[in-house]
Write a structure and sequence with these properties.
alpha+beta, Immunoglobulin-like, four-stranded antiparallel sheet, 9 strands, about 15% helix, elongated
Length: about 130
């Protein structure tokens, strides 16, 4: 009896993390990408849609847009929840002309599950 209980406890301990990880991912969609010709200092207003497993809108995510310039400086823009569940709005301003890496941190409620989703680089023009 003790051996079977020990086996059961070990089996549960091994399986539980993998089951939890199975639900541990989200997708991110953007309403638009920065338009060609966007100038430094001009706002890019974007809607971010965060969905668990690419299907279920996530009301408790904390997404943010992240841009990184050629010098490696990271700029973060927190998104705010909108009335539509799983949708968030962000206002992004590129501080200077140049090429920027573009990513969106999905803000998954469990930090171990959250990740940055990358998009194509953005070229921002001088004013």
């Amino acid at each position: 009896m003790k051996k079977s209980m020990l086996f059961l406890a070990v089996a549960v301990a091994l399986v539980a993390p993998s089951v939890a990880k199975a639900g541990c991912w989200a997708t991110v969609g953007l309403s638009s990408l920065p338009k060609p010709g966007l100038q430094a200092g001009e706002p890019w207003n974007v809607t971010i849609r965060v969905r668990q497993h690419g299907r279920t809108p996530m009301p408790d995510a904390k997404p943010e847009v992240r841009i990184r310039n050629a010098a490696g400086t990271l700029f973060r823009f927190k998104a705010k929840p909108m009335s539509r569940i799983g949708s968030y709005s962000a206002r992004v301003v590129f501080p200077a002309a140049g090429l920027y890496e573009l990513g969106v941190y999905d803000g998954f409620p469990y930090a171990a599950c959250a990740r940055v989703h990358t998009f194509k680089p953005v070229l921002i023009e001088a004013v």
